[in-house]
UniProtKB/TrEMBL annotation:
Hydrolase found in the keyword field: yes
Position of the signal peptide: none
Protein name, as recorded: Restriction endonuclease
Annotated Gene3D superfamilies: DNA mismatch repair MutH/Restriction endonuclease, type II
The UniProt record lists the keyword Hydrolase: yes
Highest taxon of source: Bacteria
Taxonomic source organism: Lentzea aerocolonigenes (Lechevalieria aerocolonigenes)
Keywords attached to this entry: Endonuclease, Hydrolase, Nuclease
GO molecular function: DNA binding; endonuclease activity; hydrolase activity
Length: 250
């Protein structure tokens, strides 16, 4: 990502002819066709996340036996993969973006959010709004983490990009990533993220700690929970009724 393309500019000269990507980049800069990406962390992160998911979708399209579904902007996960290429099971892939610290480059500027703690994560057998299926329907959960250094003088804004792939539980801390929202936070050390050295020794320890955490449950979430539980009970009763009608074997 080099910047935002501007169709017209006072310096525009057409046509533009280039024999390489580097030459094209230089001409776009020279004729003022590139505007800077946003510096605001959330806006820049969104652009990078979309770009990474686009790339993954292109590669999955070229993979025999791979199936995929893109998630919603505020849902979980960012990408669902399945199909024979992945054992016929569903796998959740979430993309995270974090900036290196301004004063301490060995840490992220803020904790990465791993999950929302008071909905689909806390009640993993319920199908929450904004998710494609229940949390426990996924055979695996994987985070793709983009670490970058902010360069305010560059239109691309991003320098020294590093990509880390880890299972969320392996990089989890015992701290929330926000003081106002119900989010699970990752460790801040980039070396620990890279090596998968979180604060838990096993997945069971991670899930036990965070599912017992006293997250706040808003009135809206409580209403959603009541509806989902009721729906689940209705489905169970329906299945029981269907089972009761099956003929008995001799």
């Amino acid at each position: 990502m080099l910047g935002i393309f501007r169709k017209t500019s006072p310096s525009a000269r057409w046509p533009i002819a280039a024999s390489s990507a580097d030459q094209l980049e230089g001409l776009l800069h020279e004729h003022d066709h590139l505007l800077p990406l946003p510096k605001e962390p959330a806006a820049l992160a969104n652009i990078l996340e979309v770009s990474i998911v686009d790339y993954l979708l292109t590669r999955l399209d070229a993979t025999e036996g791979a199936e995929h579904t893109r998630g919603t902007e505020r849902g979980y996960p960012d990408l669902e993969i399945s199909g024979p290429a992945f054992g016929g099971s569903y796998h959740a892939v979430d993309v995270k973006v974090a900036r290196r610290g301004d004063t301490n480059k060995s840490k992220t500027q803020s904790r990465i959010t791993l999950y929302t703690g008071n909905t689909y994560f806390k009640w993993p057998d319920l199908h929450w709004p904004g998710t494609m299926r229940t949390f426990n329907d996924y055979r695996s959960h994987l985070d793709i983490i983009i670490i970058y250094t902010l360069d305010s003088d560059s239109k691309a804004r991003v320098q020294d990009m590093e990509i880390i792939v880890q299972q969320p539980w392996k990089i989890a801390s015992k701290q929330r990533s926000s003081t106002t929202r119900e989010y699970l936070g990752a460790v801040e050390s980039i070396a620990a993220l890279r090596d998968g050295r979180g604060e838990f020794s096993t997945p069971a320890e991670f899930y036990r700690f965070w599912r017992a955490y006293p997250f706040k449950i808003s009135a809206q979430v409580q209403k959603q929970l009541a509806r989902l539980v009721q729906k689940q009970q209705q489905e169970i009763e329906q299945l029981r009724g269907q089972t009761a009608q099956l003929p008995l074997e001799d």
